[in-house]
């Protein structure tokens, strides 16, 4: 099972296709024909939802922690990939395409568990996304501010 990362925005962002020969952050709009993923929309207050993938072709390339029942945590293995690179590319994408926005929203959740309510909610500054100790808590919802 893979981590998925979704971004809520007030305006459209570019779609970047995944390229297996040149692996980087990629994006894809959430389409209404993906009925399973449509349940993700209820978590967002912003109207446009975009899937954000990492260089691993899923969200597993982002540092993450799974929150189990009773707040027990499971950490991913940060040596699986250059996860700092994915966080830098995420911040660069946000600043380049959404720098004029007052906020965006991010939701990290396991694939197929899109209707799951977040166990963690946090408001962060965009710059925190690249901090070495920042990890997405799954299932977690983030309001990202100070994008400029």
Describe the structure.
The protein is 14% helix and 32% strand. It has 148 residues and is of the alpha+beta class. The termini are far apart.
What's the short story on this structure?
The protein is 14% helix and 32% strand. It has 148 residues and is of the alpha+beta class. Strands 2-3-1-6-9-7 form a six-stranded mixed sheet, with no helix packed on it. A three-stranded mixed sheet has the order 5-4-8, with no helix packed on it.
Keywords:
single chain; 148 residues; six-stranded mixed sheet; three-stranded mixed sheet; globular
Rounded to the nearest angstrom, the radius of gyration is 14 Å
Largest sheet: number of strands, sense, barrel closure:
6 strands, mixed
Number of strands: 9
Shape: globular
Low-confidence stretches: none
Question: Which structural category do the helix and sheet elements fall into?
Answer: alpha+beta
Q: Helix proportion of residues, in percent?
A: 10-25%
Question: What is the N-to-C succession of helices and strands?
Answer: EEHEEEHEEEE
């Amino acid at each position: 099972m893979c981590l998925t990362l979704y971004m809520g925005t007030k305006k459209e962002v570019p779609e970047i296709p995944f390229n297996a020969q040149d692996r980087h952050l990629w994006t894809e709009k959430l389409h209404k024909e993906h009925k399973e993923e449509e349940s993700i929309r209820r978590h967002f207050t912003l109207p446009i939802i975009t899937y954000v993938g990492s260089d691993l072709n899923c969200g597993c390339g982002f540092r993450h922690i799974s929150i189990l029942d009773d707040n027990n945590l499971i950490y991913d293995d940060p040596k699986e990939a250059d996860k700092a690179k994915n966080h830098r590319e995420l911040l660069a994408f946000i600043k380049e395409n959404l720098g004029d926005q007052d906020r965006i929203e991010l939701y990290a959740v396991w694939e197929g568990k899109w209707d799951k309510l977040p166990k963690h909610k946090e408001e962060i500054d965009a710059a925190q996304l690249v901090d070495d100790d920042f990890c997405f808590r799954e299932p977690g919802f983030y309001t990202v501010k100070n994008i400029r």
